[in-house]
Amino acid sequence: MTKGLEKILEKRQSPSGVRFSDLCSVCDHFFGAARQSGGSHRIYKTPWPGDPRVNIQNDKGKAKPYQVRQVLKAIEKLATEEKETGK
Question: pTM of the entire structure?
Answer without folding.
Answer: 0.79
